[in-house]
Amino acid sequence: MKPMAQSILEVRGVTLAFGGVKALNDVSFSVEEGSITSVIGPNGAGKTSVFNTISGFYTPASGDIRFCEQSLAGVKPPRRAALGMARSFQNIALFRGMSVLDNIKLGRHCHLKTGPLSALFYTRSARREEEALRQEIEERIIDFLEIDHIRKAPVASLSYGLQKRVELARALAMKPKILLLDEPVAGMNREETEDMARFILEVRREWGVTILMVEHDMGMVMDLSDHVIVLNFGQVIADGKPAEVQANPEVIKAYLGSGDVMALRARYKDAAMARARSAA
Ligand SMILES: Nc1ncnc2c1ncn2[C@@H]1O[C@H](COP(=O)(O)OP(=O)(O)OP(=O)(O)O)[C@@H](O)[C@H]1O
């Protein structure tokens, strides 16, 4: 018998309101450890609100979020990162004047044990820690994401696709148990999208990291995900395997009124690309 999969993240009855607008209304779902799970839904459905609530930027009016069986109530975003939650943003959030390597190094700071005082005096333990950090970054992450040739380049000089890859590298440097990816392929051309899809699959396979992503590219969602959660007007309207969700009449209605969810791929891809390019 197949062992029961364990959930790494549980969203339980979460409600979030902005004034009179209920961005999330009693939202519940779980994310299995080791899975690629996607949250989809039309514009304004509540996807970003879910991400911001999970990562601690928003506090829900009610409900609870449990990570590795621990409630996150009252746990601030930096502590959530230290517990093993890393995220990328819809609009790239890197330091554009800094090099690729320095941006990636920032990701590891949430795990450094050396306090500010010993770092100031640069003790032997601080030096050892920095050396271990440097090696881990250089030998694993940079190599893995094929960004060795640009490690010294300022982020601002890179193509959009490479910047997104550096953002992924920085998130990986946080040694996460779960990676929250907010529209990882928005604004990318086909080749960049295929590269990112490959990296996401490899992050899960080689690093054992669970992935939770919000993405408008339906082709990518359906190809990569083990599990898909569909939001509409702040509520979960479907939750299941990609094929089940795609065939769900309520999902089809939410997106189109009628028709095929897959047909939306091009439409949403174009909209997401235009949005991301203008924001970069
Ligand atoms: N900071 C905010 N202040 C007020 N209302 C907000 C805020 N953030 C989101 N909302 C509202 O909450 C609802 C859900 O928005 P959210 O951004 O989570 O949706 P989304 O599914 O991520 O949309 P998109 O696909 O366009 O990014 C929308 O009605 C939105 O207008």
Written description of the protein model:
The chain has two domains: 1-84 and 176-280, P-loop containing nucleotide triphosphate hydrolases (Rossmann fold); 95-174, no CATH class. The termini are far apart. A hairpin with a 2-residue loop joins strand 9 (227-232) and strand 10. The chain is globular and about 55 Å long. The protein is of the alpha/beta class. It has helices at residues 47-54, 77-83, 100-108, 116-121, 124-144, 160-172, 190-207, 218-224, 242-246, 249-256, 264-279; strands at residues 7-18, 21-32, 36-40, 62-67, 70-71, 85-88, 178-182, 210-214, 227-232, 235-240. The chain has eleven helices and ten strands. Bound molecules: adenosine-5'-triphosphate. The site of adenosine-5'-triphosphate (ATP) has 11 residues, from strand 2 and helix 1. One of its GO terms (molecular function) is ATP binding. Residues 9-258 form the ABC transporter domain. Keywords: ATP-binding, Cell membrane, Membrane, Nucleotide-binding, Transport. InterPro entries: AAA+_ATPase, ABC_AA/LPS_Transport, ABC_transporter-like_ATP-bd, BCA_ABC_TP_C, P-loop_NTPase.
Task: Write a concise synopsis of the structure shown.
By secondary structure, the protein is of the alpha/beta class. The chain has helices at 47-54, 77-83, 100-108, 116-121, 124-144, 160-172, 190-207, 218-224, 242-246, 249-256, 264-279, and strands at 7-18, 21-32, 36-40, 62-67, 70-71, 85-88, 178-182, 210-214, 227-232, 235-240. The strands form two sheets. A six-stranded mixed sheet has the order 6-7-8-3-9-10, sandwiched between helices.
